[in-house]
Structures are given as C-alpha cells and as structure tokens.
Amino acid sequence: MKFQPVIGLEVHVQLLTDSKIFCGCSTRFGAEPNSQTCPVCLGLPGALPVLNRRVVEFAVKAGLATNCSISHRSVFARKNYFYPDLPKGYQISQFEEPICLKGWLDIQVNGTAKRIGITRIHMEEDAGKLVHGELPGLDDGSGVDLNRACTPLLEIVSEPDLRTADEAVAYLKQLHRIVTWLGICDGNMEEGSFRCDANVSVMPVGADKLGTRAEIKNVNSFRFVKQAIEHEIERQIDLIEDGGTVVQETRLFDPNTGRTRSMRGKEEAHDYRYFPDPDLVPLVIDDEWVRRAQDELPELPEQRQRRFISEYGVSEYDAEVLTATRSLAEYYEGCVALHGNGKAVSNWVMGELTRALNDSGLSIDQCPVTPRLLAELVKLIDSGTISGKIAKTVFDEMWRSGREPGAIVEEQGLVQVSDSGAIEAIIDGILAANQGQVEEYRGGKEKVFGFFVGQVMRASKGKANPALVNELLLNKLKG
Ligand code: ADP
Ligand code: MG
Ligand code: ZN
Q: What is the distance between the alpha carbons of residues 320 and 310, in angstroms, rounded to a whole number?
C-alpha cells in the first residue's frame, strides 16, 4: 500500500510590541527573571486585563497580508489548564470567534506553485517559562520566570493542505518573510519568536478521509521542521505497515537523535473548557479601521518579487533572493534608482555584497557600503574606467573604509589601461619570454591562449582592459 502524508502547521508569532498584550510590562528578551511583571501578568486576584491596541493593529496587518478576512467582531476566550508557568490557571486566547479567517499563501516548490489555505489567525498571550537547574539562592531546583507571561502572540493555523516536508518548509519560510517584512515579528527562531507545531498524518493514496494526526510541538528551525516531519511520516507508515494504529498525541522532536517521541496524549478542545473571558469585551473592528490598515500595508514580498522580474529583468531566483528581507529589497532598489541597470546591480548585490555580508556576519542594515557607493562602483565599470576584476578590489577597500570608489581608484592607480600601444608592449614582452608556449599555440594547442591572457593581466597588475587584451593577443599570435 502507498501512503499520502498530510501536514498542517500552527505557527506562533511573537509580536514586536514594546509592552505585553494585557498590561504595560516590557516584553524585552533576556531580562532578569520576574523583573518584568505586574499584578495582571502575575495573575493576582482582582487584576484586570486591558487590551494593547498595537496587538490588534499587528493582527490585522498579518491577516491582510495573508489574504484573510478580518472579523468585525472577535472574542477573547479563556483556555483553562493547569501548569506552573500559567499563574491564572487559564490562557487568554481566542476560540470560536478569532480576528482573522480564511486566508491563503502561495508557495513554490521545485518550480511548481501551490496555494495553501489559512484557516484562522488568533491573538493570545504567551505563558511564562520554567527554569531548571541552578537558581539564585538554590543549588538546584526548578523556578518560574514570568517575564514572558502575557507577551502577545499570533497563532496562524494552516489548512491540512501541505503534502511534503519541503512544502511545509516553503510555507513556513514564506510566512516568516511576511511577518518580518511587516515588522510585526523579529523572526528570531532561536529565541522562539517564530515557532511551529507540525501536525502530521498519513492515509492510503486515494483515500477520502484524513488519517489520525500527531502534533509535533515547538519546532524552532526550518531544518528541524523538515527533519521532524520526514521522520514522523516514516514512523507512522512503519507503524501502520506493522499492523499498528497511529494515536492522536503530542510529540516532541529531539534534534540530537532526529526522532520524535511521545510527550502526552492530545487534548481535545472540550478539555480546555473554553468560555468567553468576562473581563474583556468583544473586540469590534469597523470598516474604516480595516481600510486604513489596507492603505498602510507596504508592498508585500511576493508582489515586489514579481515587480523585480518585470521591471528589472532579473531571474525568478534572483528576485526571490533580493526580496528575502525588506531591507535587502530596499537596498537593491535604492541602488538601482541611482544606477539604472537592474541586472548589473543585481549581480553585485547577489555576488560581492552578499559574500561580504556573510563573511563579516553583518546584516544589510549594518552594511558599510551604501547603495550610493555601490552604484558609483558599477558606474565605473560601465564607463570602462576599471575592469570588473579590479572593481572587486575597490569593493573590498570600500567595505573596509566606506570611502568613495572614485577616490580609491585614483589613489591606488587602478584606472583600466585601454591604450592599445601600452598593452601591445606588454604582450610583446610576454611572447618573447615564452617562445615555447608560442610554438605550442601555433602548433594547434589553443588552450595556451588562457595562459597568455593570465600573464598579460598579471603584468598589468590586473589593469589591462580584458577585451582589448584578448583582441590584441589573438592578432599577435596569428601574425
Ligand atoms: P489543535 O489546537 O487542537 O491542534 P487547531 O485547529 O488549532 O487544533 O490546529 C489543527 C492543525 O492540524 C491545523 O493546522 C490543521 O490543518 C491540522 N490538521 C488537522 N487534521 C489533520 C490531519 N488529519 N493531518 C494533518 N494535519 C491535520
Ligand atoms: Mg495544535
Ligand atoms: Zn504585567
């Protein structure tokens, strides 16, 4: 029997607000434990939550950017469960009436486009954190840090439309690009700002009913998502083929073994005794608010990607890389605005600039070479002032010093030599010194040509105009 895997993702996105969702405490990461708490997020009796307006604005943006409809009315609900990191004994979330419904995202896998449905997006508060091991005043033990309690999250739930681990990763990357692009999430997966639960099931090919799903909790890197899903698919198929049945449960992925293991039986929604939170009135969003949010929405990464292809003639792949982040796309376009040739600029941004960023570990926002400097550099190549090869040397110097490329070229005497007399003189010298190779070339061994080009370029310290070198060299060798 052949099996068809089915995957649906629940993604938790931590929002980049300064304060928490229902109180004024700071959301800053890494502070002293329990230093960012108040009666509301500590769950003290009598404290009342007040909704952070910014959270709603961010949720609406996320909804619009993922083609959802925005609910005019949504309701906060209490999700009841007991855990030491949840002081109220319930989490404020949304259940029957979430803020966004029925959206979709387009993904590309191996050149094939696919539309993935988004079931819903809701707002909720995060829980605190348990800390195990050495604690202040205790040799060893477990403590609760409630700094994270009540920080704002969006949960974005996909339809079970994904069929492979690669599709799941493509969807996640697309979603990650959108929420960071909108500036509503820092996207830091290591710190848990963007984390995913992967629901996985398998069914016989052609079946019309989905199989029982296992949910893999809190996977926090793209690579782990792929590994976890692939392993889980294999585990379920093996289990069924051995005559077993998949049970609905929550599993954990262990990056050290590359396997998933059972954590607990899966709760059903009714186990949580959801009910509307009486401390919070229903949230009403009018048309005017949605229209304003729509107007303020930036051009989204996919639109920009498509525009780069049509406007600047770059390839699909290049356009995707250039729109990986909003800062990079802005850098690129800033540069094109000053230079004019989108292809030429793209080669430099995708090539030298990306390499230098990777080598230095800097982000594009910290890049010492401004779009204007890069545009100037490419202009120097266009005008024939320097060769493409010398331009790389100039680029490295710009990277180090942030100085004007023109000044560097002048100071270091890097101007390209396009004077045929001067180049001919060099060629004559090289040919005279390498008579053996000249004979070989004339005897039909054309490969030696590259050797001569290299020698001439070296003798000119890389400054000879390469096209001219080729032309003159060919004439001399033939002659
Ligand atoms: P819960 O919080 O109980 O996990 P949600 O409705 O929030 O429920 O999320 C369920 C997720 O599981 C969705 O992403 C959905 O697409 C996915 N899903 C539902 N049924 C299946 C299935 N049979 N196989 C794989 N994924 C599924
Ligand atoms: Mg779930
Ligand atoms: Zn607080």
A: 13
